[in-house]
Design a protein that fits this description.
mainly alpha, about 90% helix, rod-shaped
């Protein structure tokens, strides 16, 4: 009976493995691009503060934080970790 369950869950586990690998690849590329955008936001915030535009500078800093590795990419990493956890649970059956 146990081998029937393994046959049923193998394709799901295989697809989850492929999906997490692909998403990890996309996360790496996306993080690099967002890092560049974050640098532009930080430089823009510095320029706004030098021009005495505090509200624009604060908005640019908040946007820079969201684009940093601690913002949006961390959400993607959490999703990938969740999918990997589900995959590991399926493999342990």
């Amino acid at each position: 009976m146990r081998w029937i369950i393994k046959i049923i869950f193998f394709p799901i586990s295989f697809l989850l493995s492929i999906l997490t690998t692909f998403l990890t690849f996309l996360l790496g590329i996306g993080t690099a691009l967002l890092y560049l955008l974050m640098m532009f936001c930080i430089f823009g915030a510095i320029a706004a503060f030098l021009q005495k535009e505090a509200t624009i500078g604060i908005e640019a800093l908040v946007l820079g934080f969201l684009l940093s590795p601690y913002g949006i990419p961390m959400v993607g990493a959490a999703v990938i970790a969740c999918l990997q956890g589900i995959n590991e649970e399926i493999k342990s059956i």
